[in-house]
Model the fold of this input.
Amino acid sequence: MGLDERALFNDRPEMRIGRYQCPRCKRNGEYSIRWVRRSKKDRLPPGADEQDRAKFAKLRDYLLRLDEDVTCKACGKKFEIPSQHSLMFVDQLAGLPNDEDLEREITQASGEPDPPPEAKPALPARFTRKSSGWK
Ligand SMILES: [Zn+2]
Done:
């Protein structure tokens, strides 16, 4: 008999911000969604057999979404979160900002003037050098 997945992972609840569009009013909203982060344990529990060992070797940390639906903040309709967003492998997330950080960056970026279409040539060093080196 194989071990249950729960014996192989440590579960930790985690809130993540998700951005979803309401199917009724088409408005986008940010929602706090409950997830559980499953981190592979450091070692196999006692009683593991060969099959468990093989399975354990292939396991990856992942996030599992617990919330199935959200209630639209604009019109109050309850709608399902798209199911393709229900499981994420942590190694796929590595190096990516989470949704919250991403949104913040987008907001910040949109508040600034657009960069010029062509990069200006860098100023000669004499214009940018700090006064400490100035003689
Ligand atoms: Zn709505």
